[in-house]
Amino acid sequence: MKSPTLSRADAFPVEGKGLSWSAMDRAMALDQAETRSFAMIIIGGGITGAGIAREAALRRIPFLLVDKGDFASGTSSRSSKLIHGGLRYLAQGDLGLMRESVTERDWLHQALPHLVRPLPFHWCSYAGGADGPAKIRAGLLVYDLLANGFSRTRSPGRHRILSPEELLAREPAARSEGLRMAGLYYDTQVDDARLTLETLKEARNRSGGLSVVLNYVQAERIVLEGGRVRGVALRDGPSGRLLQVAAGCVVNATGAWTDETLGRAGEHAHLIRPTKGVHLVVPNHRLGNRGAFVLRAVDDGRFFFVLRRGEVSLIGTTDTDYDGSLDAPRCTRQDCDYLLRGVNAAFPAAHLTPEDLLGTYAGVRPLVLAGGGSASEESRKHVIRDPGTGLVTIAGGKLTTFRVMAWDLLERCARRGYIRHLRGAEARGEHSRRPYQVGLAWEALAQALRRLCLEDLVPDATLRHLHQQYGQGALSILREVRLCPGSGEPLVAGHPYCAAEIHHLLAFEDAPRLTDVMLRRTEMGLEVSHRRQGELAGRVAELMGRRYGWSEARVQEELGSHLDGVRASVAL
């Protein structure tokens, strides 16, 4: 399949821009939610809800989507940031889920080439270890066969077997003692929050103005009459405004909050087994990895990753049962020490300590309760709960397979008569297997820059950052830089973020709060040390204050709230 180009028939009417979507238009969006007619109401603005919205929009089915917090503020911004097939499913014998995952991975790599990017992984075999050479060879052979056999798309790269000398030439910081061989294979990395946001933007752009998407709106009660759903009672968080929205179909896509949401319909279900996953962020130069590694924990032998992500490396994840606040999971000293013991064993010269951390983050996985053993053994398959009332719940699943999950749910709703009957091409799941409008390969960007006279406006590092995060949106940002060259200068030295980027996302990505920008519209909170967050966040808060007309007190309130979260993330 060829990379998407700007000449596609479904390209944006104005290159680099979708529909305007600003927090300043919130009152108008609330009015639209209250006065328009919707076929379905989707509760939950993570990747699952976003995927369902996209499936509906591609079929011109009007929807209202709400989230009590920001989009992707739960699990969908706190993952390992991978679109991957899941090698560990081999050990569980779940080849079906692996096949589904690698197929979706390869489609996403084609649909969003700037955002879903290949990453080389190294799976090493050591003397006396749990992963012998035969196991690694067989596992990677099956992995490639499932990805490439009878598939329209191809995986980001085929696996290779490396000798100890070849592995150490590629990755000199890896442990050499007892090294027998290594398998090299490819998966892809992604900004999970941006994937969610681009999916929501795609849904809005393709809905023809029929649909509404709102953050910071709480679904207080799901209204049922005569055993059927009639709508949802909503409360807008910022204003306190109450809304009653009618619809015959309500989708519960609230992830870890699934059981809580069902309670708002008077149901007392127990579907979710919440587990906590923690990641550490360290400077890449302290660890020394050039690519990604599949490692075994020293304590219990379970898999975890070391992931190269530009100038930082992510270490994770843990997988433990969790009974704390779903809204505020934290990395503990126990979590940190567990991961550091494993990574220091694999990279013996690193000697990482908590003092080396740039930051941490933790998320709650909404695994479906199956009465299994350990948390890491629970299935990542999704389930749909449909008692026939028009309230349909989807739970479980994984980031990689969100499109399959979304189509499964939409098709179920149509089959049960909750929404209109689907006809022709729209009745097939393949209908949504198409490039995103924002998708843009690097080669296509270079062509567009020449044609639009947008070359040489920013340093190469900034250009690559803008392309990687925004795809076609980078063209809109560069137009502002051409008009106002100062807006392309770094906000802080050593990082590519610039004022033009902030102006763009405030106009087109509905970011009402500073933390939305720092943690989800960008990866500033991930890539910039907690020691420099005050400097960078202060400059972003000033830009937002000027755009939104905030008082100085509001600017300081937003800044203080963000920095409180930063401090909590490293208070081990």
Description:
With 572 residues, the chain is α+β, with helices and mostly antiparallel strands. It has three domains: 23-75 and 193-271 and 379-432, FAD/NAD(P)-binding domain, CATH 3.50.50; 101-189 and 273-377, D-Amino Acid Oxidase, Chain A, domain 2 (2-Layer Sandwich); 442-569, Alpha-glycerophosphate oxidase, cap domain (Helicase, Ruva Protein, domain 3). 36% of the residues lie in helices and 20% in strands. It is built from 19 helices and 19 strands. It has helices at residues 26-35, 47-57, 89-92, 95-111, 133-148, 164-170, 192-206, 258-263, 284-287, 333-346, 402-415, 442-451, 460-470, 473-483, 499-508, 514-521, 524-527, 533-548, 552-569, and strands at residues 40-43, 63-66, 82-83, 117-126, 160-162, 179-189, 212-214, 217-225, 228-236, 242-246, 250-252, 272-283, 292-296, 303-309, 312-316, 320-321, 359-368, 382-385, 391-396. Strands 3, 4, 5, 6, 12, 13, 14, 15, 16 and 17 form a ten-stranded mixed sheet that branches. A six-stranded mixed sheet has the order 7-2-1-11-19-18, sandwiched between helices. Helix 2 (47-57) crosses helix 11, helix 14 packs across helix 15 (499-508) and helix 15 (499-508) packs across helix 18 (533-548). The longest helix has 18 residues, at 552-569. It is globular, with a radius of gyration of 23 Å. The chain starts with 25 loop residues before the first helix and ends with a helix. The relative contact order is 0.15. Residues 1-9 have low confidence and may be disordered.
